[in-house]
Amino acid sequence: MHDSDFMKLALNEARAALVHGDVPIGAIVARNDDVIAGAHNEREFRGDPTAHAEILALQRASKKLGRWRLDDVTLYVTIEPCPMCAGAVVASRIPRLVYGAPDEKAGAAYSLYNIVQDPRLNHQCSVTAGVMAEESASLLQEFFRGRRKRIERL
Hints:
Layout: H1 3-17, E1 26-31, E2 34-40, H2 43-46, H3 53-65, E3 74-79, H4 83-91, E4 96-101, E5 126-129, H5 133-153
């Protein structure tokens, strides 16, 4: 499988977040050609500020593999991780991160910060950015456009 194949799966996860009104962000954890885990944002659904797609996917991958060190997987996420999620990437020793759209307001894998490649930390990972970025950005833009329309009606 190619990066775009895994990103399509992450986009499917992102769309699942729409069902419960969460921001459509999806994540997939893969090892070689196998999907280990997937998740989407569930902050609204769970009422939990830490229930980001990346965090949930890493928790599921860790449980499935029976270890916290995820040093042989790739994390695919539809948008650039925030500082919390970038920290989780470093803490779990992920060697490779692939994301779709940049996040100019909260991105921590290049846009605002580069936590995942900071040489002062005990782990760094390689980053591939922009995989299916237009699709990822479009999904988020549609979501927030709809949210703004609902607010305007109030």
